[in-house]
Amino acid sequence: MVSRRDALKLGLVASGLAAGAAPLAWSARPLRVRDHTVIAKPARLELLGPDYPSTEVWAFNNMIPGPVLRAVQGDTIRVRFRNRLPMVSTIHWHGIRLPNAMDGVPGITQPPVKPGEDFQYEFVLPDAGTFWYHPHVATYEQIGRGLFGTIVVEEREPPDVDDDVMWSLSDVTLTKEAAISPNFKSLHDAAHAGRLGNVILVNGERGPATLGVRAGSRVRLRLLNSASARIFRLKFHGHQPLVVAHDGHPCTPYALTESILFSPGNRLDLILDCTAAPNTVLEVEDEFFPAMRKKIGVIQYTSRSPQALRKPFTGLPPNAVLEPVMAGAESVKMVLEGGALSNKATRETIWLMNGKGNDHGSHMDIHGKQPEPLFTFEQGCTVRCLIDNKTAWFHPMHFHGVVLRERLPNGQWGPLKDSTLLWPFKTQEIAFVAESAGDWMIHCHVSEHQHSGLMGTFRVASMCRTPATPKA
Ligand code: C2O
Ligand code: CU
Ligand code: CU
User: Fold this and answer.
1) Which atom of ligand 1 is nearest to the CA of 95?
2) What is the pLDDT of residues 7-60, one digit of tens each?
3) Which residue has a Cα nearest atom 3 of ligand 1?
């Protein structure tokens, strides 16, 4: 096991490598250490509002989502995690580039934190953007009962907006008494699309959410999909917000003229220019299942007279991430098999990655041992990975410790992301730089798939001969 001191040393190595010359050149705002305490424990919350019985949930600091952890790019965050759950846990910092020992993966990067025990996480935040945190133990249950929260890392020079709003989308399966259904280990859910809850929550309350805006104003809307399995397809009626970041990382802004797929684990940063007239009411719908559209949010214009529209938004400042160098890249292949409608599922594992599956509910292999990495890469190398989904199901495949780009149908490389959505019976190529040393997870972010086979690791070892160059 790596000690915390070693981890911090690794952190220096990793952030020095990751950020190239950029961090010291950031503006004059002083870097700070942000201290937080995050307590995971059972709580009672009114998920359905005051007219219904309250629900026993698991929550961080008695809130769903947990506290928003705010910092400025370049700050250090120090989180004392107290586990007061009836089972072991950890916290994973989804999308944040950090040293391996701070990644929060039980049995791989740290021992699981036992009930009644604490663990301190500490790392630098190299990237501005919208990130999130959640346990990495039995996520189908721990995230499913309410353990997740957001991390807002502000740009050193944040964009000028009238409002900065977060919508965390999730869902729960509630009984008639408004209790959370304890059926988290359903084999049916695991072999199909995962657990799709019967109530959609926005910021921990039954949707739709209401966003009050003034005509002419500019809103930054940060979206998180923290559902255990539900893929949304979001449609903004009457608005064409600009997508300005995927998974925390700025992209070339583009207008949402159609709907957009939004998978578990994903974040989207939108710039919404409120171009409609005062008193207008416009909806945001989920149309993933066209026959069962669901209202997610309502954008409600106040009666105030319009304010002047700002100039078109030109984009967020990019993060200093390592760009893949395709010449000399290492090419690997990953095959996904199994699930319902397949004859590959075995009694040990429902899903397989390159013929291997993890044990039900744990990060170990089916023999209870630490998994052999699926791949080993030299640190600094560019990796091209062709993922072949031979299953009849969607899989949002998430990679820890790297930022990836998807190969688009036109042959170009798409925006930076930390996951890629695999369509049924389709392939997708991705590329990333194997950035910091350690064993990192690759898994489907449908939690029920993750814990029934679709989870493995890749190893980043030593240094590489042809290092990637930081983006200017
Ligand atoms: Cu949200 Cu292993 O991830
Ligand atoms: Cu993650
Ligand atoms: Cu999956």
Assistant:
1) 1
2) 333 333 333 333 333 444 445 567 899 999 999 999 999 999 999 999 999 999
3) 94
